[in-house]
Amino acid sequence: MSQQEKTVDVLIVGCGVAGLSAAVTALEGGLSVLNLERATPDDFGGGSRWTEAYMRMKNDSEVSDDFEEHFANNAGPNLDLNVLQAVSSGGYEHWPSYVKAHPFPDPELIAKFADSVPGTISWLKGFGLKFEPQPIYLLTQNTTRIAAQGGGLKLIETLREKALGLGGEIAYRTTAVDLLRDDSGRVIGVRAVGPDGIHKTILARNVVLASGGYQGNQEMMTHYIGPKAKNIRPVATGGYYSRGEGIRMALAAGAAPAGEYGSYHAEPVDPRSSMAEAVVFIYPYGILVNTEGKRFIDEAPGTVDAHYDNISRSFADQPKGLVYVVFDSKVEDIPRWKTSIRSDIPPLQANSLADLAKQMNVSAEALQATVASFNAACPPPPKEFTPFQIDHCGTKEISPPKSHWSRSIDKGPFYAYPIISSNCFTFGGLKVNTDAQVLTQDGHVIPGLYAAGETVGIYHQVYTGSTSVLRGLTFGRIAASHMVRTK
Ligand SMILES: Cc1cc2nc3c(=O)[nH]c(=O)nc-3n(C[C@H](O)[C@H](O)[C@H](O)COP(=O)(O)OP(=O)(O)OC[C@H]3O[C@@H](n4cnc5c(N)ncnc54)[C@H](O)[C@@H]3O)c2cc1C
Question: Which end of the chain has fewer CB atoms < 10 Å from its terminal CB, N or C?
């Protein structure tokens, strides 16, 4: 049976950084706000709860120099020149509808995103939050990063407290399942299921979809990413709450999809660990082999931050979706190498490759043959080993090649970590304009409907690292600011 509840100015689906940033901004602007959160009060906040919240910024008031450029370089493979010409030859209002609704991250949107970051950070600092450089598990980087002190948990706890203090309400264990629309197509609320399992109608003047991606929905993962989805799991338990309803209900209402639906931001994770983000980033200094004991990819095409997304995605294509990084005790030449590993489970260790292979459940002959041919392809060691700078010390005449830090694996004890491709978040989402309003397949605004955070699709090919927390914080604030301006 359907129950009708109250009407609010702003109904927000989700309580991660995107939903709570929207909530506080709307409340500060004098609007009434209700957030729906499918999790409990102790487990709210989806992926935001688990992130260390690195941000692609030079300092707390400037984004990194390559912020917009990285998005432009990863706007989608084989981008249609007609789309690019339409974008560069006239203002947004003159873009053909197919361009306004194109799944690529349009330059206006990314420029608005980048321009809005400093103001958003400054606003958050007003709540006592601090942003500064922090040590990171990436031993080599090609951009600048800072982080929110206390990570995503501190961000969402602070924003939740602020929202409640301003009179906002949160309905926990309540899941939005459908959008309500009037005859003109305006979104007027949602249908939701509360803790009692009973459907209810919640009317609202505006709805913000800030409900994450679909990393917690195996059916959608398989639908968009393919059968290899069975090999992929969320990088933290918060991902299981992102089941794609926000994206699904908007698509059903005619929204344009954006972002690369068949992809996700991948991280290399030790499957034996139950901790969040149990990453293993030591592979540029060893080799990666699959369960057949064979190499399958260049382990070090450049700095680790520039390539780990693609490399980690490739693991899901390997047999059983399982690979191993194999390295030797020369790893001790790398100062603080253990910071690149966050798994709480020690590596497999043996005095011979044959014994290591046994522990890996991999053929000893195959592993020994792979290591022998890799060692034979390694160049003579450079005068100085520079683990924190790419060294162009590449293999010769071996496929796949290894481009940097190619040192033979010959000094026991030998080590291995199992690694799988884990899913930080999915790339597919909704197309929005620079006010975070959701657009139709014809580039029209869907009145009353906004999206923020992972529910907005902007990523293709390689993730522009350390921009997803910023996407949530910024687009939540952009959406609510527009509602306040137009109330
Ligand atoms: C371990 C980890 C590390 C990361 N590290 C970084 C990093 O360093 N830098 C960076 O930029 N990004 C990082 N990310 C990604 C980033 O944290 C997330 O993409 C971002 O926080 C997502 O924010 P969001 O508000 O869009 O979604 P979420 O934080 O996932 O919030 C979605 C919310 O919606 C709720 N919800 C979902 N569906 C419904 C529904 N139907 N009804 C009601 N509620 C619903 C969920 O319960 C949740 O509260 C990391 C992610 C993880 C998991």
Answer: N
